[in-house]
Amino acid sequence: MSKNNKQFVEKITAMEDDFAQWYTDVVKQAELVDYGAVRGTMIIKPYGFAIWENIRDQLDRRFKETGHSNVSFPLFIPESMLQKEKDHIEGFAPEVAWVTKGGEEELEERICVRPTSEVLFGEYYAKNIHSYRDLPKLFNQWSNVVRWEKTTRPFLRSLEFLWQEGHTAHATQEEAEEETAQMLDIYAEICEDYLAIPVLRGKKTEKEKFAGAEYTLTVESLMHDGKALQSGTSHYFGTGFAEAFDIRYLNKDGEQQPVHQTSWGMSTRIMGALIMVHGDNRGLVIPPRIAPTQAMIVPVAQHKEGVLDKAYDLRDRLQHLVRVDIDSSDKKPGWKFNEYEMKGIPVRIEMGPKDIENEQVVLVRRDTGDKEFVPLSELEERLPALLEEVQQNIYNQALTHLNETTTTAKNMDEFKQALDEKPGFIQAMWCGDHTCEEKIKDETSATSRCIPFEQQHVSDSCVYCGREAKELVYWARAY
Amino acid sequence: MSKNNKQFVEKITAMEDDFAQWYTDVVKQAELVDYGAVRGTMIIKPYGFAIWENIRDQLDRRFKETGHSNVSFPLFIPESMLQKEKDHIEGFAPEVAWVTKGGEEELEERICVRPTSEVLFGEYYAKNIHSYRDLPKLFNQWSNVVRWEKTTRPFLRSLEFLWQEGHTAHATQEEAEEETAQMLDIYAEICEDYLAIPVLRGKKTEKEKFAGAEYTLTVESLMHDGKALQSGTSHYFGTGFAEAFDIRYLNKDGEQQPVHQTSWGMSTRIMGALIMVHGDNRGLVIPPRIAPTQAMIVPVAQHKEGVLDKAYDLRDRLQHLVRVDIDSSDKKPGWKFNEYEMKGIPVRIEMGPKDIENEQVVLVRRDTGDKEFVPLSELEERLPALLEEVQQNIYNQALTHLNETTTTAKNMDEFKQALDEKPGFIQAMWCGDHTCEEKIKDETSATSRCIPFEQQHVSDSCVYCGREAKELVYWARAY
Lengths: 479, 479
What we know:
Two copies of one chain form a homodimer. Chain A has about 475 residues and is of the alpha+beta class. Chain A folds into three domains: about 20-280, Bira Bifunctional Protein, Domain 2 (BirA Bifunctional Protein, domain 2); about 295-400, Anticodon-binding domain (Rossmann fold), CATH 3.40.50; about 405-475, Translation Initiation Factor IF3, CATH 3.30.110. Chain A contains 14 helices and 23 strands. In chain A, the strands form five sheets. An eleven-stranded mixed sheet of chain A has the order 3-7-8-14-11-10-9-22-23-21-20, with helices on both faces. In chain A, helix 2 (about 45-65) crosses helix 6 (about 175-195). Chain A is globular and about 80 Å long. The two termini of chain A are about 30 Å apart. Chains A and B meet through strand 2, helix 2, strand 3, strand 4 and strand 5 of A and strand 2, helix 2, strand 3, strand 4 and strand 5 of B. Chains A, B: This is Proline--tRNA ligase. Chains A, B: It comes from Lentibacillus cibarius. Chains A, B: Pfam families: HGTP_anticodon, ProRS-C_1, tRNA-synt_2b. Chains A, B: Keywords: Aminoacyl-tRNA synthetase, ATP-binding, Cytoplasm, Ligase, Nucleotide-binding, Protein biosynthesis.
């Protein structure tokens, strides 16, 4: 942990009083982020970045296991290239940052700072794919992208953010659709198994899909305040970009065919979900599997002889088993407790003279605050088990919250009542008409989050217009 | 390896005929890089990026072992902030890319796409450092930076490149200078022990130091054509940025003191060194310790029964020991040999029906082309040993080249003769006057590369002006 001179953790706003302020307070007090000099940009501080690095490493491993290669494409896109795919440019042009001058030179053509890189990959694939032997292309990059947002919040909506963007090209529709589904599964797995965030899996409506995609798959999670957050998306492009960029290959029968493409991304936005799904009024709660520090040793009465030595012995003993750290600074134990609670360290290990005498330590869980005395001889067994219990418990809590706030609405009265009284996801049937979707948004500010893969038939008619229902949709107010 | 339909590796230009063209050919044929759409930008392809990832991981591990934390600072810097440190802005302003428009909005203040991030870290440290307890700050980031270069070449000089930039703040000059030296040692270690690139260690002259630094330490390497390449630099800033940005801390005696700062960076330029130090007329030669694939199995007569099975068995046997891959595509073995020679895979493992019968394989070294027959039973022992021999041999070759082309010059006739006849480093005494340095550059296009830490007294007078010599300098033409 960084040494710092803060002798106490400032109080944070209670989430029940002002959820947005609670979020801002936690982000700051837990030392995740600071503001950059240009409006809407962010500085991800060591603790925030260490969490992101762990998420990144977990994703990257799975990308490689499924045959993907990392690459690095340029930050800059010429304006003319961005305009090749019509839907795509319409979606992104309003939020592009433009470079118009390089050194002393006024540029003849404006250059766009990438908001996403489909067109660059499209151009590359057009040049580099000739035959079925060149397929599939399974590329990913870890990069920064810029979107000129009007209102910004750290992690949730920032002018620049970090993400990975996968871009793949395939010989057949079937293969590309399998890829699209596979990558969504990886996002769902990371959310549920590592970040302890339960997600809904489904397809975006036409209105909410990615600009230029044939369809978009999404995993959606639910925050403490009952608002949803899109946590990872995977897009199937069909042959749209292939037609726009002329990406064709010679198949085994000697025929020219367009490729089928996908793209998929997860970004630092997921850090926002991590904060808002698990955090409480004492700060962050970081799931053990993703926590940079899983257990923090806080020596008690450390000025007494032998305490610090024993605490360091303990650290050395445990560090091959769990990610453990020690705080031997001269801050008072109480301040340390507060600080590591704020940072959401899953387990605190207290050890003082009496514990040493009794050959035990005290384990304190961040999620429940429960304390237990554990004999030193059993610690190697108990600590990893406890971390797993914490992981499971915070997942279960989040799942309970998701389930308890998911309401079925058969008409707009029920819809609005649910939003008012128990904000969360609303299951409601939809006729498939985008005007109904828009009117729901206008009247409630809730948007369609996804058409779930697991369909149910909760009523016969569209929740808005009463016409024949086509499918079940999850709706929510969202970040 | 990526499957591709290239049935042969195109001939590359011989380096003796046209070194620049040889470089371009290798970069392309070995599938390291392609050109981006905006002039001077590059696409780092899977094989190139895999090499960079290995370099990055080695560096990152050492940064963390020495107590540094990764962070992520913004891509964008307001123009007014860039101007706070006078020397710094003078150095960078001519090569900055400017964002002047965001979405539809004309910006009131131009925004600079970072060419380096000293000012952002300076601003952050000013806000976040208050007391000696806040020190040291040991930050690093892996990022992309943009410099609007007029002439560009892949890796060597590109509009955008990838790098890491470390930025640290310390209580004392001594500690900051130790950090500066420590980080240079890490660069030297990576170059010599991993990239098999011998380096000269030293200090830059005033003329060649980083804009705004008090001094710059550098590791310099030598390419096949006798030109030098700056391979990693570490800067000591003294209190210059602290004064410009008002970064002060309260020391233990309650006095306000400016911090002492450093920054240090290694970039994708090092990929250029890797190519030009070890490559030959058959392509790349990648040092085993950094090679994404250390050994490539090429089955011979793979259509014969059992050959492919045995080849896969071999891969499975070896893959926990070395980074091994297999090419079972339907390309002819000869084409495969060429392709992996072009890509510089350290060792090729050939295995055909006769080898299987004799329970042996053929190992072919990339560096020397030597073949050896190795009994299967001895492979686990022999292969790692051979990889180490390759690593040592290519380092020794590079060191021999460096030593054999390092000339001592006592006057400008000797200096120019050496550059003409045996291009490499020139050791020559210097009076310390920057006009001599400039005149040497004007007359020979050689620049001072470093004032080596290990000084020798090779003559009494300055190689250019004949006045009393102050110190030994290494000179060379450089990338």
